[in-house]
Design brief:
Length: 118
């Protein structure tokens, strides 16, 4: 049972659920106090740490450069959509926060996989 929860196929489901939730939270006009009460940049790097780790477990054979590229495109897409729906202006600092999250995700994933394999 535990293996099924931690299988690559399961992580793909977790990744796409998380991706959808982040897209919704980033673009909704609904005010969510738990999200809005946090520092915006922390929302970005927490989201992208999580996305990187899930993406890495979901698609283990995907190259690092491709994982980073996909996530940076997703972050850029969020910024564009937010500007189009007048939620906020495009923010390069948000992309930097996404990048920091991805970098931390790479580090955490590395240590998680080292711990699991030993």
């Amino acid at each position: 049972m535990l293996y099924n929860l931690l299988s690559e196929k399961s992580f793909r489901l977790y990744f796409f659920i998380c991706l959808s939730a982040i897209e919704y939270l980033a673009t909704t006009s609904v005010h969510i106090s738990a999200v809005e009460g946090m520092w915006d940049k922390s929302n970005h790097f927490i989201a992208f740490i999580t996305l990187y780790i899930l993406l890495s477990f979901a698609f283990k054979k995907l190259a690092l450069v491709k994982k980073v590229g996909v996530l940076l495109l997703f972050g850029t897409q969020i910024e564009i959509v937010q500007q189009l729906i007048d939620r906020s202006a495009f923010s390069g600092l948000d992309i930097v926060a996404d990048s920091v999250g991805i970098l931390l995700g790479i580090i955490v994933y590395y240590f998680l996989t080292k711990k699991i394999s030993s």
